[in-house]
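Slide 14.
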Amino acid sequence: MQVNLLPALSDNYIFLLHEPKQNLAAVVDPADAQLVLRCLAKLGAELVAIFNTHHHMDHVGGNRQLISHFPKIRVYGGMEDRGRIPGQEVFLQEGDKVEFAGRVGEVLFVPGHTKGHIAYYFPPVEPGEAGELFCGDTLFAGGCGRLFEGTPTQMLNSLSKLSALPDHTRVWCAHEYTLKNLQFALTVNASNPDLQTRYAEVEKARDRREATIPSLLGVEKRTNPFLRWEDPSLQSAVNAKDPVQTFSRLRGMRDRF
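Slide 15: predicted structure.
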């Protein structure tokens, strides 16, 4: 399964999954149908599935047009998003499975950004290979999503679930927010040498207009403050006494940054 990264809108990413042997494709969060159609034409591939993580328009905006081009396509989304995702016909819950290109993906229920948010995790096929995590707007490189419909406790629990995946998991998050996320992270965790190194690397990459996605989950665990709420130095930086309070204050500070 090959993953094609398609920059969209101002800072979104669409992920086109391609199985070259049968020349089939699936797409994660198609914000813009035209970008997907151009990539499909270039590959000569047939689109068979849309995997939506949540209902926001910058993730589902291309659904209807893609359905019109591929009437047999199946549209997947979370059970809690019933009626909010265009064309959705498969309603997924925690523990459900999806299949594409001989890979079986696990569905994770990760509310917080929205009440119905889900993520798709495709474990590695062979030992030592990377798994693939499509996490929408729950976990970002260096950050996490805003709490539009959920609570700090829900988001902390969702991020804990993602953090439990193997360190070599590739994190395909849906926005290019990495540089600003790391700029914020340095305001609360400036003494972290891994964070300092990562920020310098990301700054150079963005100067070259290179994508910073995918990230690796192990890197996130070392440098992303929203996965490190139990770190005493972070708790001290936000004057918090427990993980939920630490996360909540970090999220509030990032909202104002």
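Speaker note: The first strand starts at residue 2 and ends at 8.
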